[in-house]
Amino acid sequence: MKSELKMDTGKIVDTKIVNEDSEKSFQMSLNIAITEMQEKGLYVELKYQPIVRVSGTIKHMALVIGRNEY
Fold it and tell me: Which top-level group of life is the source organism from (predicted)?
């Protein structure tokens, strides 16, 4: 039997915005947010959006979505 990943289904029960300038800080914050939601038994979906500033630096942003089912 083949399992299939279905995104954007199930009730959204938790969300968190992760927003960091440093890639290392972003990865650490993102891992914490994902782990917290998984510990609640939620399925995690990510929406990542790098934002390039006028200065040329990148701001890392992600919306972490916790759903109760697929």
Answer: Bacteria
